[in-house]
Write a structure and sequence with these properties.
The protein is α/β, with parallel strands linked by helices. It contains 19 helices and 19 strands. Helix 2 crosses helix 3, helix 12 crosses helix 13 and helix 13 crosses helix 15. The N and C termini lie far apart (86 Å).
């Protein structure tokens, strides 16, 4: 074996383990010691993958030009799968979640825990990023996200938002269901939220953890726990649920922890995944079994709609209003969809009253601010660019001075970014709108009335009653009913 043969083998395969190299060349008649010496003499651009090590100190090798490509990531992931590595467990879990996850939620799907003699979740995450197998980005209102290198979604912001809203709705319903069946105690919120600490049981993190006084879970008069993970997509392969099995294996070797009841909830399970989970003593619940077929279908339709609300609404506005109305009837759910509800009303109004195409959740990178900003509604015609900031609140909420100031501060940066993307927009008028279902404070109105002097920029704002007036003007009956039922009437009922 000469140096050229070894280098060509590495380059053509994008990434290979030292075990694979030794097997390939021993099959061709080379001696293992000779192969190991050749590997040790490799120099750049032939690299060793740092941070991620295999069993028996085996290494992953690659050509520098292949690093971070999709083929490189696929090859490395395959090697890690074959080695049953904790890193492949985390990658497969992210794939099961759609290829993208909030950084805050990574410990839940890492397959590990904060336990001695094990790689902790934060280290797994950092090593995967350093190895080029995971990318990170910032999204307004959500913070850092992690996504696979081959993650193929054009509007990542809209995808993340849809996923999070849908997930929070179902977690809320699951929590209510567990409480009503007396599985868990009533006195605390037990599911993960953006603004709370992650639910934790012993050394591991879960979507839901809650104390339980069920008799089989009691141990020496001490309460047990229910632990649960949720999927929004079908489980089609056992690899997608390996992270849960690894978390349970960690718990099984710990001493002096409460008894626990593990549950997994997903739209559906492959036969292999279902059988594997049952053998491990895990409660397996599909959406159909838990919520009924009609509700499961409703969740699926809502998830699709949320990913591109503008397109769904333009295609069939009545259908979208029906979906949201049915979802909002679930106890405690209307608060979680109030933002998308109001945004849907505003999209319908913009689409009806203006020319040009309409987008929602458009994410643009502002170079001057060095961060992404999300445009709730974006409408472009031959002469104007119409942008709307939507704030869905109950009528007793007052839009504050600070809220308006932050929005106004971003306007110039948004315009510059939009023009840098298309120079022809420099000749168009930019109309920035702040719409709310509630009202503005006096200080915020004073600030809005100080118009921007640039003649190419216009500032407009509308409160709840003014939005209702526009809706009635264009005879948008579905929008009128939603605004009345889930904003104005909802508020009045609470007051009474």
């Amino acid at each position: 074996m000469n140096k050229t043969e070894l280098e060509r083998f590495i380059r053509e395969n994008y990434a290979v383990s030292s075990k694979q190299i030794i097997k390939h060349f021993t099959d061709l008649g080379e001696k293992p010691d000779t192969i190991r010496k050749s590997i040790s003499r490799l120099t750049p651009p032939y690299m060793r993958l740092k941070y991620i090590r295999l069993a028996n100190n085996a290494q992953i090798l690659y050509h520098k030009e292949n690093w971070h490509t999709i083929n490189f990531c696929k090859k490395v992931t395959k090697i890690l799968n074959e080695e049953n590595s904790i890193y492949s467990t985390a990658l497969e879990a992210i794939k099961a979640k759609g290829g993208c996850i909030l950084e805050k939620y990574f410990p839940i799907i890492s397959g590990s825990g904060e336990q001695k003699k094990h790689i902790w979740p934060d280290k797994i995450k950092n090593n995967l990023i350093s190895a080029g197998l995971l990318n990170e980005d910032n999204i307004e209102n959500f913070g850092k996200i992690l996504y696979l290198t081959d993650f193929d979604i054009l509007n990542i912001s809209a995808y993340v938002r849809a996923y999070c809203i849908q997930e929070q709705i179902i977690l809320q319903i699951v929590e209510d269901w567990l409480k009503k069946l007396n599985f868990i105690t009533y006195n605390q919120i037990c599911y993960k939220k953006l603004d709370n600490n992650l639910p934790k049981f012993a050394t591991t993190y879960w979507d839901i953890t809650a104390p339980s006084y069920l008799l089989p879970l009691m141990k020496k008069n001490k309460q047990g726990s229910v632990i649960c993970d949720l999927f929004l997509k079908d489980i089609s392969d056992v690899t997608q649920i390996q992270y849960i099995i690894k978390k349970l294996e960690l718990l099984s070797i710990q001493k002096n922890i409460p008894r626990y009841l593990p549950m997994i909830i997903a739209p559906s399970f492959s036969q292999d995944a279902f059988t594997t989970l049952k053998r491990k003593g895990i409660i397996v619940a599909s959406y159909d079994n838990l919520f009924g077929k009609e509700t499961a279908r409703l969740f699926s339709e809502l998830y699709i709609s949320l990913q591109n609300l503008a397109a769904a609404l333009i295609k069939d506005p009545n259908k979208q209003y029906i979906i949201f109305e049915k979802i909002a009837t679930f106890e405690n759910i209307s608060n979680k969809i109030r933002g998308p509800l109001f945004e849907m009303i505003c999209i319908h109004l913009v689409h009806t009253s203006r020319l040009g195409f309409v987008e929602n959740g458009k994410n643009i990178f502002c170079q001057t601010l060095e961060k992404y900003l999300e445009l709730d509604i974006f409408n472009e015609s031959p002469t104007e660019i119409f942008i709307v900031e939507c704030k869905g609140y109950l009528p007793n909420h007052l839009i504050s001075y600070q809220e308006v100031k932050e929005w106004l501060d971003n306007i110039i940066h948004i315009r510059k970014s939009m023009i840098s993307m298309n120079a022809e927009r420099n000749n168009k008028k930019f109309i920035f709108n702040f719409w709310t279902s509630s009202r503005f404070s006096e200080e915020s109105v004073d600030l809005l009335q100080k118009k921007i002097t640039n003649p190419q920029i216009k500032i407009q704002w509308k409160d709840g009653p003014e939005i209702m007036q526009e809706i009635k003007k264009y005879k948008l009956k579905g929008a009128e009913k939603i605004l009345n039922d889930y904003f104005f009437k909802n508020f009045l009922d609470k007051q009474l």
